[in-house]
Input
Amino acid sequence: MSEKLYDVIIVGGRIAGASLAARLGAAGLKVLILEKDTVPGRTVVSCPLLLSSGMQLLDEIGIDESLYAPDNTRFAGVALEMGEYFRTFVEIPDVYGRHFLYGIDRQVLDEALWKNLERFPNVTQLENFSVRELLVDEDGKANGVTGMYKGGESQTFLAEAVIGADGRHSIVARKAGAVVTEEITQYNTAVYYAYWEGVEAYQAQEKEWIQIHSGCNGFSAVVIPASKGLTGVLAQCRHDYFNAPGGVDAWYRDTIHSFPRIAQRLKNAKQVTALSGMKNVGNLFRQAWGNGWALAGDAYHQKDSYDAQGIYDALLGAKILALQLIDWKEGKKDWVTSMQSYNREVYDALHPMFKSTLDRLKREMFTSPSPKMANGLLRWVLTNKKYRERFGLLATRRISPKNWASPGVMLSAILSGAAADFRKKPDQEKWWTLPALQA
Ligand SMILES: Cc1cc2nc3c(=O)[nH]c(=O)nc-3n(C[C@H](O)[C@H](O)[C@H](O)COP(=O)(O)OP(=O)(O)OC[C@H]3O[C@@H](n4cnc5c(N)ncnc54)[C@H](O)[C@@H]3O)c2cc1C
Output
């Protein structure tokens, strides 16, 4: 039993928790960060792409690129294939001096975040400690946690505030009674992935790309090379199409092999990790704070991995929360005022992208275009230069998701696509045509 008083206890030691601890540690707060696993230890379900927007936030907390991308697994952007109709390329624009994205290994990033905290003598890190209870004082204010070490010994820690950065199944959210304030279940998807060795590279236009293959039928696959010669191969489908009578492994194999453009890259490859994933990736926001507690990262907000924004959102939310906690600790604001600001700012920062991701899921995963539509309207829009540039800026969060594809952008894409089709000679080369499949 320990009664040492911390300024803040953070439950969860990965993206949201460790980045929050770094910001609070740098500001001189006395922080205790509790993680139920060892870090990196078990990998959380995540087969990530890391965009320059996230890298910029990692720069801010002193984490160098070489730490999370040791093998320099850079890509120009994403090659998006729409069935056998056409493909298009979304290049990452030059944002903060980086015009590429990384395929990364989550364990490597998590370890870099955790080790970074060793720089702060005022941050105490504890692994293998699972929080079981949120403690509250006689006024109903959260003031600590009780938990258990892996060996079974229990301990209590006290603090002025408790932050739940403990992921989608957050115990802090549950024990505090944080309500779900917004939830959209209509566009949930099932996502499973494994890492493979020996996957063929995807080269086009003299660059290397992350491959996203949409079957235009409610199913898709993504191929993400990461460190150590491993490549993540991910299969996704609408939740209502998920049917795995032979087990999830069989479903995964069948799904990725139903796409010849994925299967051809796996011809000489071997799956080297067990399958990871989930049947129902949720899309929701929870109440952000209460009396003496607050939530960050996936504990606060979850969304589909379709737009690869989870890490950025967790890093950004932690930054917004850190600024408010620092103001509160320095006496510039009381708890309620600082948390109201956190609530407003974090929601404004994350909600537009949440809506944009759901809109894309609705259009691209939950609608199956007719061949006429795919070869016409869809191609005109997705291959349009301006549209692709705007999409790159959206993915790196340089433009607001609220109006990234304005009616003007869409209309001009449709008109110029239709006009180009009309003018083209039949034998003219079309950059968006998919190459022949290997025999
Ligand atoms: C299939 C898939 C693919 C994804 N791909 C991408 C991508 O390409 N790009 C991207 O940016 N995002 C991606 N994401 C999302 C991203 O992984 C999450 O948004 C991110 O991990 C959230 O970080 P977090 O710190 O909030 O939570 P987590 O990373 O889940 O960390 C929570 C931590 O809390 C700990 N914890 C939980 N309970 C307790 C307890 N009781 N006591 C102590 N510790 C506890 C856990 O052990 C864990 O370490 C993907 C997600 C999925 C599911």
